[in-house]
Amino acid sequence: MKFTFFATAALAATIKRSVAGPDDIAALNSLINGTLQGVNQQIPTMIQNGHFDPLAVVAVGSTPPKPVNLGFCEADAEAGYTLTNLIGLHTLQIDHATVLSAIINDTTGNFAAEVQAAIKPVSIAMDFSGYITSHCGLIHTKEALNGNVAIQSLDIALNANVFFDTSNGFAVAQATLEGIQITYGQIDVTFDGFAQIFNPLLEFITSHITGRVKSQLLDQLDTLIKPYAQKAINAKLPIQLA
Prior knowledge:
Layout: H1 9-13, H2 22-33, H3 36-49, E1 55-62, E2 66-69, E3 74-87, E4 94-104, E5 111-136, E6 139-165, E7 171-184, E8 187-191, H4 199-236, E9 239-240
Antiparallel strand pairs: 1-3, 2-3, 3-5, 4-5, 5-6, 6-7, 6-8, 7-9
């Protein structure tokens, strides 16, 4: 994988060798955002080469027993499920990057900056399968579960600590990916052929699956994709900007 960056030496020269004030931040923002076209061109390949889209297994789990009011009785319900075949992450694209803060070494002119990258909203989907059981007096039921989870809009922000070396032009000498923040849009859970008379059971499992999707997706991005992206970035350092 090769990153291609776009910036001009004239723009790099506008960055002052003093305290990182508004003009310094603006110049850094211009330099960094000038690289995004090249970075975005490489993201789909990186995601698919890492086998993150489709992602075969997202989560396997079960719910603890919980009382559910079925109207005619209160049942003890529990469920087991597997979330699989996550698709959509290959469409991730960085919308813009913002320098949150920067420190300049007055002797060398090098910069250390905290940068936040905002990802364009994406839509993703995954399948699920499993079962749900309920016990209500002498009535014991077990239903198979199959369906789909769709997230209409997933907003992702990624923070990074970036060190810029100015000894020979302007280059990214080090970049360390830090925290990931996710904002979820509407999450739709669709069941295939599950009896509608058990709506309270549907609400029970829908609530649990929705919560698990949120926690597991953040975990997958943080523990799988972020280290993979960090390794890819490290392999390309230093990255000459101007």
